[in-house]
Design brief:
Layout (H helix, E strand, L loop, with lengths): L5 H5 L16 E8 L3 E4 L4 E8 L1 E6 L2 E6 L3 E4 L5 E5 L4 E8 L1 H7 L3 H13 L3 E2 L3 H18 L6 H26 L7 H11 L7 H8 L3 H12 L3 H16 L7 H7 L5 H12 L3 H8 L4 H18 L7 H8 L3 H12 L3 H19 L4 H7 L5 H12 L3 H8 L4
Antiparallel strand pairs: 1-8, 2-7, 3-6, 3-8, 4-5, 4-7, 6-9
Protein name: HTH araC/xylS-type domain-containing protein
Keywords: DNA-binding, Transcription, Transcription regulation
Organism: Anaerocolumna chitinilytica
Length: about 400
Amino acid sequence: MNEINSYNYLGYSHAKYLENDPVQYDIKVNEVIFKENQGTHFHDDVELLYVVNGEAKLFVNNELNNISAGDLVMLMPYHVHAIKLISKSLTVYQGKVSLGLLLYSSISRIIEKHISYSLAYGNVVAKFTDKEKKKIQQNFEEIIEELNTDTFLNTMIGLSIIIKIILMFSRNIAGSISAHECYEHSITWKLMQYMHMNFSNDISAKSLATEFSMSPNKINNYFYLLTGENLSENLHRTRIRYACSMFQFDELSSSYIGKYVGYKNTSSFFRKFKEIKKMTPDEYRKSHIPDDGMYRTLNTSWKILLYLFEHYAEPLDVLSISQALFLSPETIHTELLSNFDTSLPDLITKIRLQYAQSFLQVIDAPILKIAYMCGFSSIRTFNRCFKELIGCTPLEFRKAKAPKS
């Protein structure tokens, strides 16, 4: 398998930030019957189509694919597509999930890698065996049944099935790539995909002209013929689309997200966001992400606490912890003070001393070694902290806890 950077295809995903509730994102799956051609369009969502009956020509980024019963189609937001019927009608199970939900579903780097691989080198249509077709159809029918009932965890079950279908699609496409040469896409497709892969970089018609050995005017013409907008307008829409998908990660500030998706300053990000979404980033976050403030606060505090318990023996400071947890230093200080009434250095010391007390009782090792095992950089600091919090020296504590002979 060729090595690729999954960030380019999936952006900021759940594999990089293990928190958040997917229930806040709608999963829509319905049976749809197309009785007339569908003109050129694209979605901000990720679209899955499973063909139940009928035949059609599917044009994606100006490339033709014939689809028929049993085919599974996965369309990303940068897939500009149209459907031209061959049969009188086309019956499909149509699933739509937000880009944010797809990012959430990337629960491991292996999954990221395989989805990214299929997007990078494969086609948008997967063809299956009769046995596989039956399973996929049953999966879609199960999602529809779950989402139409108001039962406990129905959305989570729907999500798990959606992930399964996406993985089956990716595995099928990856298998096709392994068996044959990589699918050779048209220049229009390559331009759209390149923009999608590099949206956070400083790209322009001039830089793409150098990359693809053609004039800037021709670059813009390809984009305009496909989408009705030039490269710059397409790039802004892609950046804002990904920014919207990142608002689910509530500890990421709007200014951080703006820089992450490619804007050099916050004012440019806010201005372009409002132009496209008709509201500011903060207004979008409030209107699209449920306000579950108390849960998020406690969840963040416990996340910090668990990290400290897991990494107590390592060098710890606010900068390294903020980078590891994608939290600002200010958030860490505020969370610990509000919920545990303590500072970060004091909490680290208390946790280390909890471990030290246990080690002193069960491990027959020099006190110096135990100090280092618990993350202290010197025996002097260890002794001083131990006496201040426990009320005696480590040696006195060990003697007091020793079994009586």
